Amino acid sequence: MMTILGIPVQALFGQLLLGLINGAFYAMLSLGLALIFGLLNIVNFSHGALYMMGAFVAWLLLNLCGMGYWTALIVTPIVVAIFGMVIERTMLRRLYKLDHLYGLLLTFGLALIIEGVFRQLYGISGMPYAVPKELAGGWNLGFMFLPIYRGWVVGASLVLCLGSWLLIEKTKLGAYLRAATENPALVQAFGINVPVMVTLTYGFGVALAAIAGVLAAPIYSVNPQMGSNLIIVVFAVVVIGGMGSILGAVITGFMLGLVEGLTKVFYPEAASTVIFVVMAIVLMIKPAGLFGKRS
Amino acid sequence: MTRLTPQTTLVVVLIALALIAPFGIYPIFLMKGLCFGLFAAAFNLLLGYVGLLSFGHAMFFGFSAYVTAHAAKEWGLTPELAILAGVATAAVLGAITGWLAIRRSGIYFAMVTLAFSQMMYFVAVQAPFTHGEDGIQGVPRGHLLGLIDLNDTMAMYYFVLAVFVAALLLIQRIVTSPFGQVLKAIRDNEPRAISLGYQVDRYKLLAFVLSAALAGLAGSLKALVFQLASLTDIHWHASGEVVLMTLLGGVGTVFGPTTGAFLVVAIQNYLSEVGSWVTIIQGGIFVICVLLFRSGMIGVLTPWLKRRGITG
User: Fold this and answer.
1) How high is the ipTM of this complex?
2) B165-192 residue pLDDT tens
3) Is residue B280 domain-resident?
4) CB–CB contacts below 8 A, A to B
5) Is B170 inside any structural domain?
6) Would you call A272 an interface residue with chain B, using a CB distance cutoff of 8 Å?
7) What DSSP string describes B225-247?
């Protein structure tokens, strides 16, 4: 068997793939966080809970309505985004003029409620969600075995991230969004309905989290705590990358997933803490974050 | 004879009530309230007077509990020395994480502290001396200064009460000192404080270390009261709870955090049997506090009392 630095190649690439998958989720969630923060000035603590909700909605659609994976992939983000937009309209809207910290506290409370409700209803044991049969099985690439579903998750998230980037950087709608991030009052004066745009942006960020949840459902078991464990790591990713740039959020997300995967190979004890150590180092060297503009 | 101010009268009445309370109310409940009250007051020192929201204070509370429990159980230290060890560890941890965290402000500060706290949680999961899921159980309370047997619940209660009162007086002293005035200046207008020549980062760091050490003191006491240090104390839920207590009681007030702590501990006590409802209700309180009364219980009550001429 081939080895690199004494590690079997199979194991090395296997862990790198796992890292890439984690990175895909970090990227999708931090992208949504960065978008929401840019326009709403709110750090959406409930992002993890909404990701968990995405996984649960897909599971419920399957078990209550018999709706398959592919339909769920379309329906779930719409359902969760509507839920998110109702929250934005009824609650978050009242906080825009206050200190950013209140947005964090409110969404933290919402995260507790959402997580608590699902835990009360479904317990903490976790539900299995089968891999769709079109994506079952795997390919033998010679140096490693690639389960098709995992390859699909990485590919789908790359497409989503790239698509979001193009939408924001290259379209007219994206131009309005960027302008409103810089100066909402001026954009409003030009006759663009900024409050509606804010609601839609929140909905879009939430929809990304929900899609991530659906993608995650067949990989991890669907359980109420899957979101809160992830969101804290994503916060560290956001601190490392800085929330100023969309592409920066995506790159940092994938990169840290890989770093985590490599750590699992070479020093497994540190795998759960390595991202926080990277954060500490970045804070020492470049406090504003790798892609941050100001401190 | 000097005339007593309403505030001093209130403090005297409260202390008198606290002295007779264990004869009517379950002492363990009171001690839990006092420990979390001290924890919240330590947290409030940072949020209320420097304007820094730490979302990771559980790392000081929980890790200090572990150190105290380990010192008392494995090294056989007397309670006061075990507590001292816990507080010193929390202060060192506060100095390291604070040094890094104060490089960012606002929401980033909250996210950085939360991330470090999660890191310490993983350390506690993996380190051998914390005994993972079991925690450190059966921690001996020992004899205070070799004289007073703390296994007696009443003795333990009065010890916790004495430490609590002393710590709150210390916090009050810090807040009203010239140092505290500079902290408030930083909170209200940081650029101006810098332009007046204050080394803002030093003040922030010292406040962070003080807050961490006091949170550690609360954790150490809790470890002795319950004779247990576990992962619950260092989980991010505990960080969220201390934010909730302070917010509910009133940020930046003297009695707010303790009031909030007793309310939250009471909610936990009465709802402990109905599963996740505690989490849901805590989340609901967060939402209501942020949307409807951001000044908290004490912040709402004080003007009401003042209008009726009862205090101040």
Assistant:
1) 0.86
2) 999 999 999 999 999 999 999 998 889 9
3) no
4) 118
5) yes
6) yes
7) HHTEE-GGGGSHHHHHHHHHHHH
